[in-house]
Hints:
With 256 residues, the chain is mainly alpha-helical. The chain has one domain (43-249): MetI-like fold, CATH 1.10.3720.10. The protein has helices at residues 4-14, 17-32, 43-56, 58-90, 92-105, 114-121, 125-149, 153-161, 166-177, 179-203, 209-218, 222-250.
Amino acid sequence: MRSPTLKRSALGLTWFFSPLALLLAWTLVAKSGAFSVQLLVPPQYVLDTFKELLHSGELQEHLRFSLGRLGLGFVGGACAGLVFGTCLALSKNVEAYCTPLFQTLRQIPTIALIPMFILLFGVEETFKILIVAKAVFFPVALATSEGIKAIPRSYLEVADVYRLPLRSLIIDVAFPAAAPPILTGLRIGLSRAWMILVAAELLAADTGLGQMIEMGRQMMRIDVVMVGVVVTGFIGFVLDYGLRLLEKRMFRWKTR
């Protein structure tokens, strides 16, 4: 029988299998000559361009802008989603008046709103931060609402017996009890926000990872485009994996 340590080591090795397989396939296709170098750049060229962008500081500058926008938009959208989701779960009036509009608006793809946001707010930082906040708001609000509604009635009855004020009811009872679905909503919102931000920067930005990819496309620098694509995927993975680790750490009791 395998030991738990051996199982974890084997699982860790499998994480590298698919990236290595993709890298190998990429190298073989690039060397086959089926595509020109201008269309499919070999991995070595991409690595050299990555080092060049890193050495010049250009990549760090674009990342600084992108992650700054993501942070501001995520915090704003998540806070608004928590507040609205709580109101939606605890107030019958808010639920009755806002649910139809909320359910309708959350079905609209965020990327479809980019042209309208550009018309309303221009192409400066406000547009990018708001589009990120919109992408975060709906998953967090929905997860918060559903999580609080799923709290066992006995919890609320105990709170009622102790005559807890609304603030204590929300902070000390509702949020801790609904924490798992809320954290899942934050994870989904963060992933969506990152994808939407890069798409928005592709369309209208002077800085940021998406703008670097777009400039590479315009200059036919496919190596720069590939660096941007790989870095975008890696950062998205790190952000999601970080929240997953936080979720596991906070709710270890669920796996016992």
